[in-house]
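Dear support,

We are seeing what looks like truncated structure output for some complexes. This example has two components. We would appreciate it if you could run it in full and send us the complete token output so we can diff it against ours.
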Amino acid sequence: MINTRSVEARLIKNIVFKSLVFSMSFIVLIPLFFILFYIVKNGISAFSLDFFLNLPKPVGEIGGGISNAIVGTLLLIVISSSIAIPFGIFIGLYLAENKVGLLPELTRLCVDTLQGVPSIVMGIIAYAWIVIPMGSFSVLSGGIALSLMMLPIVVKSTEETMSLIPESLKEAAFALGAPYYTTMIKVVIPSSKKGILSGVLLGIARVSGETAPLLFTAFGSPFMNTDILKPANSLPLLIFNYATSPYDDWQSLAWGASLVLVLFILSLSILAKVVIKK
Amino acid sequence: MGAQNFIRLTEAKDLIFKKVLGLCGLIVIGLVLGIFLTLLSKAALSMEHTGLAFLYQTVWDPVREHFGALPFFVGTMITSILALSISIPFSFALAIFLGEYVKDGPWSSVFNTALDLLAGIPSIIYGFWGLFVLVPIVRSFESAMGVLPHGVGIFSSAIVLAVMIIPYSASISREVISLVPEDIKEAALSLGATPFECITKVIFPYAKSGIFAGVLMSFGRAISETMAVTMLIGNSNKIPTSIFSPANTLASIIANEFAEASEELYLSSLVELALVLFFVTAAFSLIGRIIIKKWVLDK
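Here is the complete output from our reference environment:
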């Protein structure tokens, strides 16, 4: 005889568990909703033409903007991308082409380690490598710190995409008499460009929100600066400095900058998805 | 003759190309080694001055050149463990939800998008939001509880940190769960097990070392998180006495004090903290990866 009691108890346990799993999963959506709600609510009210075109103004003066932070962030992205993208693609290609062996394994281990290095430590490294020898905080040192954070992301996505390229494609190129480097540059890299591009976009999205590596490298500045050997502001730095200030109009600038940053990162990650699906 | 030269040239180019690729690999190894050696050499002064006492002294007083890092170890541990214990039930629930109950369909994409969004929001914005929205709530909760209402402190940081690591740990656990073979799940179900029993008696035992590795990696994530914690933890260099007290973590003390540290010994002591942080996070992520790799190979 089947004991109906025990079956019922098991079924009840199952239902309780399922509802627990469902409700806890939905609870996770609450903070996301709250964060986005506050950023949009407070950020929108800061938006105006002045907000995008002006420099930050001293406390009490109306019409301050974040133009220098936008320019600084773009500069940092350009510097970090121009270092991380070429190196990242080549390292990814190397790892995809050499799956076994001591050196590739060691390289893979180091890429993983690099990815795990805390962002604040990257700041110290860029400080020691660039800021101390050059004698001043600079956009360049910030860009280098960010490129170290971007590199593993580009490497991983490149390696992953290139591993998916069928052997037959490469063999076809070899059979036509193409040398190794031509095959790599004209066949392997072009056929994985979508994956690489999506990795690059994700890498940019990741570094453009980083603050900790910039604290003692790009440092921040209330002025407009396009000289990469001088300190400059960036969106995350501006948010950090103004969010912790006691003044309402600075905090409002910080909310606006947060909304700009979130929208920028969001569109990059959407773009990365669209690119790979196409 | 011409053809032979051409072939030789091509072979030489091939060789150079392969060497350049190998060199790129070496650059990464060199970078990691360089990071380690830089930290080591910059921390040498502090190691010489404070020695092992650095690790257990309880007073951090840059003015008198007393550098004891124990308060930050304690602060880091309590914050991260608290954040992890808040986030683990939720990340497991999400991993099971997305891996077993709602594998595809609109709800699955809603949750996946939400997790991507949570993972994409920068740390600084979590900190900003925490400071203006969460801290007042925690403050009134603290006065209701009868503790000193700081608002900022370990408790606030741990909550925000938990939200930040949920997407990361959920995605690892989910990946691990997806590696459990369908046939043993189906075997359990066809023997009459309820989905609950299938999850607790088949999936969890099978995946437990992978899940453990995921927890380790999330812990490493929590330790290295800087900006949100810096803004919320209250910047106190004393050993925390409760989960509501303000404190500092390894990452937050560096973020707070590095830019203003002018004496060489002070700077060097902060770099030694960074060295410890580097070691601990690298160890956690490496051990996690090794366990997962071994687990995948074993099964």
